[in-house]
Amino acid sequence: MKEEQSSLLLKSSSLFPPPQGVKLSYGTAGFRADASILKSAVYRVGILAALRSLKTQSVVGVMITASHNKVTDNGVKIVDPSGGMLSQEWEPFADQLVNAQTPETLLSIIRECVEKEKIPFDGVQSAEILLGRDTRPSGESLLEAAKHGISSIFGAIALDLGILTTPQLHWMVHARNKGMKATEPAYFEQISSSFRCLIDLIPNGTKVNKLDNRVVVDGADGVGGEKLLVLKNMLTDLVIEVRNSGKDGGLLNDGVGADYVQKEKVVPRGFGSNDVGKRCASLDGDADRLVYFSVPSNSSSKIDLVDGDKILSLFALFIKEQLNILTREGNKKSNNNFQAHLGVVQTAYANGASTDYLKQLGLEVIFTPTGVKHLHEKAAQFDIGIYFEANGHGTILFSESFLSWLEARNNELALVSEGSEQQKAALRLLSVSKLINQAVGDALSCLLLVEAILQHMDWSIHKWNELYQDLPSRQLKVKVVDRTAVVTTNAETVAVTPPGIQEAIDAETAKYPRGRCFIRPSGTEDVVRVYAEASTQEAADSLANSVAKLVDQFLGFGSSAQ
Ligand code: 16G
Ligand code: MG
User: Which positions are annotated as binding substrate (predicted)?
Assistant: First the structure.
């Protein structure tokens, strides 16, 4: 590393001293904390992003958001050149860099990283970083800190894209590295036009019966609401009413948003008895999660939740149907046949009834640990991989080879049987691959896909919700002395340590019909989480409570679960 580069780094990092006595960890989805202590971390993530861009010789992204956390929190994460999450191999660098106490230690960690990763660091190579932030008030000054970090690496350029949803930034990094247009208008144009294609491909009989093309969306008073106000005007055949758009003074994530709705199972602010029977949806604070719900009666605030598992089931059903049409009898004559490998990916939080349903459809279901990076990685191994967490984060990934086959098949069908059912199925799948975000789960594009499929099927939200009935479940969290004492295996379904706890959990679970229970350390909060499922709500509650007590006995402060 050149002398000038080292002294620039020493000088600029001294302007961003780390907070005393705080240790941050990259965690499941980047660094997150109270915004007041994040400047130094964001500055350093700027440096790391520049190094990552130099190393990969591609554009990378930095997103400033704390998703569904309270408005006073913020966070930062890196988007890799593929548009996905930062490679897990680099997470330890991120931790070391952010926790370095002095400019000198910081410099030596950077040196080590440059050497170990053989990063071309001669000032000749250039690096480019796309920056985005959500609507949090702290976002603007944190984004400035990221710019400082980036400009302290010679040859690195920051491109400030302003306020974006997290998935928009992922989409733009992905698009940019594929040589495609990576602007917000291009994003809106792609998702609205592929939505239109799907609507145009709805079988005629269904269109006549189409009654219900309205959806009411809770924007969590965040960036998703704001963007949806733009997107809705580009759509015909769908009427979106946006509430909690962030434009009318509501507080971000305060009694609103997908996380609140999914966890509390009550109406978000601004929804109530006037909405009985309507199809409603909720985005989270950075619009990478989506859940649906309906208000069943005007006497309580309870909702009927349609969660990520049901979105996954709807998508899987539709994709499978299109694949069946494409490859059915009579079509076999084509010498251009291909058995697409379709797989679905869930976590242990997926409701057991959803897994049963997907298996009944004949689908291959795979489990991974919690966190988008794990699900995404697995789904990418299929020709079509659909992944969802119950909390509403997910997408559909299409492999490059399957897409080239599909394009070719569509062209072939256009010649021999233009307008046939087979060709329509090919076109629908191609439209889905353009509508759904290939980089990361995206609430806006998932919303449009759900709406297109419901119109295609001519289904109400109730019909959709009846695909299967969720098993009653309960989630609890337990404060413990050290959550890292819990180590799990088998996609988090088995606790390996502390010794003896899994046997105790098994003995408890065996007492309940259809009982299922697991514990895992949270990746975002200092707690151990308990999930329990059973045939009745009372049983699920009781199982969760007993296991929370076990966690407390094995690991707690001697206090009881909260
Ligand atoms: C983060 C993850 C989400 C996961 C959640 C679990 C991303 C983008 N987000 O929000 O996938 O479900 O953490 O939180 O990866 P927990 O570890 O506290 O239960
Ligand atoms: Mg989010």
Answer: 389-391, 520-524, 529
